[in-house]
Amino acid sequence: MEYTTLGGSGTKVSRIGIGTNTFGGDADWHLSAEEARAVVDTAIDHGINFFDTANAYNAGESERVLGEAPDGYDRDRQVIAMKAYFRMDDDDPNAGGLSRKAIEQELANSLDWLAEPYEPVPIDGHG
């Protein structure tokens, strides 16, 4: 596998990354937790260490599934890029967008959903 530096972070990521929009959820094109686990296992076995997720991917379900998937692997070697933008709480006027408050809340949600002390790479953009 070839690796490259992620922006100015100094973090090395595989040139191939795995998007997780299909992990979890009820649509016909979504993967079950078992199918997603197989994707993650295969990716890691082939040297892929870069996974992309967003708060809007199945209302956090993709992050829950991803957090359960890489058991038995050194999680410190995996890099997760988390995107936040879309409002996840219609009752909170500060939810959504790219304010500091919204980004910090979505980062906290992502860490809860991932169920691990990952440090996602926040990306300024729409999920």
UniProtKB/TrEMBL annotation:
Gene3D superfamilies to which the protein is assigned, alphabetical: NADP-dependent oxidoreductase domain (3.20.20.100)
Task: Indicate the segments annotated as coiled coil, or none if absent.
Answer: none
Cite the SUPFAM superfamilies for this sequence.
Answer: NAD(P)-linked oxidoreductase
Keyword Methyltransferase, does the record have it? no
Top-level division of the source organism's lineage: Archaea
- Supply the alphabetized keyword list: Oxidoreductase
Per its record, what are the GO molecular function terms?
A: oxidoreductase activity
- What InterPro entries does the annotation carry? AKR_Detox_Biosynth, NAD(P)_OxRdtase_dom_sf, NADP_OxRdtase_dom
User: Any idea where the NADP-dependent oxidoreductase domain is?
Assistant: 15-113
| Pfam families for the chain | Aldo_ket_red
PANTHER family assigned: NAD(P)-LINKED OXIDOREDUCTASE SUPERFAMILY PROTEIN, NADH-SPECIFIC METHYLGLYOXAL REDUCTASE-RELATED
- The molecule here is called Aldo/keto reductase family protein
